[in-house]
Automatic annotation (TrEMBL):
InterPro entries: NDUFB8. One of its GO terms (cellular component) is mitochondrion. It comes from Hypsizygus marmoreus (White beech mushroom). It comes from the Eukaryota. It holds the Pfam family NDUF_B8. Signal peptide: none annotated. This is NADH dehydrogenase [ubiquinone] 1 beta subcomplex subunit 8, mitochondrial. The lineage of its organism: Eukaryota, Fungi, Dikarya, Basidiomycota, Agaricomycotina. Residues 28-47 are annotated as: Disordered.
Length: 158
């Protein structure tokens, strides 16, 4: 929804403030003359360069440009972060981050739930009783080291 609002602002700004430029072949071309919004604080690092809206070229319509590959007209003012907002910049995700997070969590919970189902419900008990050693797991017979300690013998029956 925010992209449509940004596109409407760009379209309104571009249709309201265009000026013709005569190209070398005698054709006229319209370029956009973006006005700086009075609501936003002026960036002192731009030093008079116009503050253009932060809208990716991938969100703009595909037709109606003098350079359709880059979706821009000749003579247009470039954004200060044009390498990020150009057609060659990072792709705009087709899914919102909130929706992607929800879908990811659903997929992870499905895998974890399937793992618990297999481990706790579908897995069989071992067919043999595990081996147990007397005298505290043969600590004395194995050299007395705690690292060599085997499983201790239990007196209770299963």
């Amino acid at each position: 929804m925010t992209t449509t609002v940004a596109l409407r602002r760009v379209a309104a700004a571009s249709s309201a403030a265009t000026r013709p430029i005569v190209l070398s072949a005698g054709r006229k071309s319209h370029t956009r003359n973006y006005a700086t919004s009075t609501k936003e604080e002026v960036d002192p690092q731009l030093n008079g360069y116009p503050q253009l809206p932060f809208v990716s070229r991938q969100e703009l319509p595909a037709l109606g440009w003098q350079d359709p590959l880059l979706r821009r007209n000749f003579g247009d003012t470039l954004h200060e972060q044009d390498e990020l907002l150009s057609m060659w910049g990072p792709d705009i995700p087709p899914v919102s981050p909130q929706s992607a997070t929800i879908q990811f969590l659903i997929a992870v919970s499905g895998f974890v739930g399937f793992g618990f189902l297999v481990k706790n419900v579908l897995a069989q008990d071992p067919p043999a009783v595990r081996r147990e050693y007397p005298f505290d797991g043969l600590v004395k017979e194995l050299g007395g080291l705690e690292a060599n300690k085997a499983r201790a013998e239990s007196l209770e029956e299963d």
